[in-house]
Amino acid sequence: MSGIQLLQDILIIILAGYMTIDQNGLVIMSWFPVIVGTIAGIIMGDLTTALTIAGTFQLMMLGVAALGGASAPNYGLATIIGVFIATRTGTGIKSAIAVGLPVGLLAIQLEVVARIIANFLAHKMQSDNNNSQWKKMNLEAWLGPILFSLQTALPAILIVFFGPEVVTFILKVVPTWVTDGLTVAGGMLPVVGIGMLLHYMPVKKFLPYIIVGFVLAAYLNVGVLGIALIGFAGAYWYFFSESKKVSEPVTGATSDDEDDDYDE
Amino acid sequence: MRMMITMNDVDKYKVTKKDRRRVAVRYNFMACNLFNYESQMGPAVAWSMAPVLRKIYKDDDEYKAAVNNHFNYYNSTTVMSSMILGATLAMEERDGIQAKDAVQSLKTSLMGPLAGVGDTLVWVLWPTIMGSISGYMALQGNPLGAIVWLIANIAFWFLKLKLFDVGYTSGTKLITSLGNKLTIFTEAASIMGLSVVGGLIATVVKISAPVKFQFGKVTLNLQTGIFDKIMPALLPALLTFLIFKLLGNKKWTPTRVILLVIAISLVGTFLGIFKA
């Protein structure tokens, strides 16, 4: 392997790893195929082929605006891998799609794993806060970007060093009920965060409003903005009727001890 | 009344422009890079606010409580988060730990609806427009579309930093006009927040059991045949109630609950009750 090839290998892996960090935060190049594809093309020294592949994947991605959807492949990684394989082997766009798409699907499985690991990291940070270990807490946060970069860097490493056979092999070896089960878990797990949140809010006092929001969404398919507007109407009414009670001099003395009845 | 005594603290910290910039930069880098299924963006919010909160809360216990407050479930579009976090910072600067519940309610009630607006603009409209233009250009061998898109995204990033200040100043205005009605405001915000949470239960928690039972010639789909007939989003509602109850039990730490949910998913998928 020549020196320039090794340099290309390393840069492609870095690009793939950084892409996820960027997508998760800065959103400057994100995993938009044309942008990462152009950069990959510059690295591989063949912009023309790269642009064809990037354009193809970009248009493929248009239909799937993945809003929290875990099933669409990672088209950004698919593009990077596609550009790498196509230019390195000289086999063109067909092999780019054949290898790129399965790798993109693998990255989505890894995302579920990364988010589950991130959960333990979050707990570590919070317990450090409770133990006054703030320096540690601040440093530990940097493990997050490292962890998430592996989501796309690992598949890139596999491809760059071992070739496309590895990807199909991995997806074949792991039983489908495991990959499907993780996807199912990914759909269910937000419930834990919502459950925690409810413990911090005055659920008992304002239970009817949860029901209102639930019914609007479940039965009437009202979007979150619509639910918030109705919630706002309730809040508006509550705020002004309660404020009136407080400012009236007669009841002014009694409002002192009525605020703690729901805190736990 | 209690509030009045602590409010005339002399050594109250004044948040500087540099502080605000620091939180905004930290948040707009970290955002989803600590994303987890339990608190989602929570840790990123806590981490980005931590340095400035330390300056506001000189008391260790108050600081701990304030940081813990930000570790709670939070998820919104980063653009919108800049404004929400700017506003919460203004509240904490003014009222200190007294603002804790108000901060929680404000974040909860705004994150959903603002994400609805933000996600549509940032994750649907913008990538679709830029993607289709630059995608076609790329197919013709022209990288210009991609380059313009990249530059525009850099400009957007600076706009996000700016929006933090917008949130901060309007947040301050909000609080000064509220005066001593902050408790009522908190409760009102909780009303809005809880309505949104009710909607989240039905939409964000995804669980369905499309398993089919065969009785001679009759097939019955558990999800569409029974659960959907009783109530839409019945399973998410039941699951939320169960998890809420479990979390109220000291023995069930969030980690255990998460492992339980993963175990249920794996077993359920293995048995064919759930499908991906």
Structural overview:
The complex is a heterodimer of chains A (264) and B (276). Chain A has helices spanning 3-24, 33-44, 47-62, 75-89, 93-130, 134-140, 143-162, 165-173, 176-188, 190-199, 207-218, 224-247. Chain A is mainly alpha-helical and 264 residues long. Chain A has two domains: 3-189, no CATH class; 201-246, no CATH class. In chain A, 47% of the residues are buried. Residues 65-70 and 250-264 of chain A have low confidence and may be disordered. In chain B, strands 1-2 form a two-stranded antiparallel ribbon. In chain B, β1 (212-215) and β2 (218-221) form a beta hairpin. In chain B, α2 (17-30) packs antiparallel against α3 (42-56) and α5 runs parallel beside α7 (144-178). At the A-B interface, α1, α2, α3, α5 and α6 of A face α2, α3, α4, α6 and α7 of B.
Largest sheet of chain B: 2 strands, antiparallel
Overall spatial form of chain A: elongated
How helical, in percent, are the residues of chain A? over 70%
Strand percent estimate of chain A: under 5%
**Total number of helices of chain B:** 11
Tell me about the largest β-sheet of chain A: none
Spans of at least 5 consecutive residues with low confidence of chain A: 65-70, 250-264
Terminal Cα span of chain B: 54 Å
Structural class computed from helices and strand pairing of chain A: mainly alpha
Most extensive interface between two protein chains, with residue counts:
A-B, 112 and 120 residues
Q: Name the structural class of chain B.
A: mainly alpha
Radius of gyration of chain B: 23 Å
Tell me the strand percentage band of chain B.
under 5%
- End-to-end distance of chain A, in Å? 65 Å
Protein name (chain A): PTS N-acetylgalactosamine transporter subunit IIA
Main location (chain A): membrane
Pfam family, one (chain A): EII-Sor
Keywords (chain A): Cell membrane, Membrane, Phosphotransferase system, Sugar transport, Transmembrane, Transmembrane helix, Transport
